[in-house]
Protein 1
Amino acid sequence: MSVSRESFAHVCDLVRRRSAIVLEAGKEYLVDARLGPVAKAAGLASVDDLVAHLRRCEARPEHEELARAIVEAMTTNETSFFRDVHPFTTLETVVLPELIRARARHRMLRIWCAAASTGQEPFSVAMLLCEHFPQLASWDVRIFATDINRSVLDRARSGVFRQLEVNRGLPVKMLVKYFDKRGLDWQIKPEIRELVSFQELNLLARWPLFGQQDIVLMRNVLIYFDVPTKKQILGRVRQVMANDGVLFLGGSETTMNLEDSLVGERLTGPGMIFRARKTAPRAGGTKAG
Ligand SMILES: C[S@@+](CC[C@H](N)C(=O)[O-])C[C@H]1O[C@@H](n2cnc3c(N)ncnc32)[C@H](O)[C@@H]1O
């Protein structure tokens, strides 16, 4: 049975206020599919019952936990190792060599993976660092991996992945080198896991002070937000990025018409990276926002 119009509107409003995720009309089936298990876990027969219960317990402490469970269930956590390939090629062949040269004196690199989901993205970056830049072993390198969803972060922290997950995008050579077999699953080795620290962070809320970031990966999350929220978040990203820092967005995301101070460059393959604008763009130039 489909969720009622009133319950759907209530869920849309809650999810948008708390996470910025926009659920458009027609997504009732998604609300049904994702919140059915939340209702069941709360001992309720339907999503309508879940919403009615949520409204009734508004002033009680359990409201917060239930509201969070609803928001988390409505996040889409699709990800894979070395997703889209090209961003990682660009990281390896262009971005990291440049930044390593620029940071040779201070020997410090900060990387923020801002919608890390179950961890494949930050672990891909960590493996890439170990594989291609062994000189960084003596540097102070940290990868901050954040997400709004606590259950995906718990999974990411465990570093355990199913066979199906390691079959997606991870070269066999890397699987053998950087993972240990654990029963039917695979666990990433401690030396890779230790490079990444996972933390809960809602992009809508206050961001912890973790210093200037050299590389920001904010991939496949802005697509869920409306234009004013994208603008606001990209403006804040620019503030936490080093002046020569680099931003990676998802394949269908851009800063164009959203944040003029971050200009896109097409490097290898279809991916784009975004750097702080140093000079005004020239007509007919190679850069695209
Ligand atoms: C589709 S996944 C992208 C994962 C990874 N970046 C990639 O491209 O493979 C989107 C992630 O954004 C997270 N997310 C959604 N809204 C968020 C918010 N307001 N703050 C932080 N993370 C959010 C979701 O929980 C989800 O794990």
Note: DSSP finds eleven helices and ten strands in the chain.
Protein 2
Amino acid sequence: MDQKKQPEITHAEYASKKGEIALRPHEFDGIQEYDQTLPNWWLFIFHASVIAFVGGWFLYYNVGLTKTDAENVDAQLERIASAKAKALEDMLSTLNDETLVNQWATDTTVVDAGRQIYQANCIACHGENLTASIDVGGGQKVNLPGLSLKDAEWKYGAKPMDIFRIINEGTPADSPGHNGAKMQAWGQTLPPLQVAQITAFLIHENEAEFR
Ligand code: HEC
């Protein structure tokens, strides 16, 4: 007897040919499940993501082919640090006691820029009038945390470049500061140009002393 071979067909395919929806044989709490395969486009994306994950995991964590996030951050920080060092070096190649007093501090645009940066960053501790105190009325004065920048006394050197340096580098590590307060290194937040502009402003405000 020669039986004709039937093409193999799944239950679900058979049902769908008949225009029916096949159900899986199980049932839980009256809930049944359709017996349908997921669309190929969906399966393709699913399998591709699994492969991409395994490949990515292997290359990133085992082979070390790509840089880790930590290495990327370190490289960026290094780049920023060297750009800052370069900017300071460039500034120091032309900035000196003589140019600060005779060029920077006599240029009104430079001094005005310095005044604005001073007002934005320094008045909290050195006062709007540079005396490190504020007038609270009735002849009363309140001292601010900083030192007076108008008393012709410069604790860390009275040369223009000494003033640039104390602003740029802050209180030296081995100094106890003033009443226990140390000043931050403004070079961390302000570019060398702005530190030079504030220095020019301070020299301008203390003109008699520097000329
Ligand atoms: C949070 C408070 C604070 C701020 C803000 C501050 N300083 Fe100071 N500054 C101090 C203190 C405190 C000292 C004294 C440090 C010491 O004795 O080591 C000081 C010292 C100085 C000195 C040395 C003064 C001297 O007579 O020897 C200069 C110059 C100076 N600051 C400039 C600036 C400039 C410019 C800014 C703004 C960019 C600024 N400071 C912002 C607290 C501050």
Note: The longest strand covers residues 133-137.
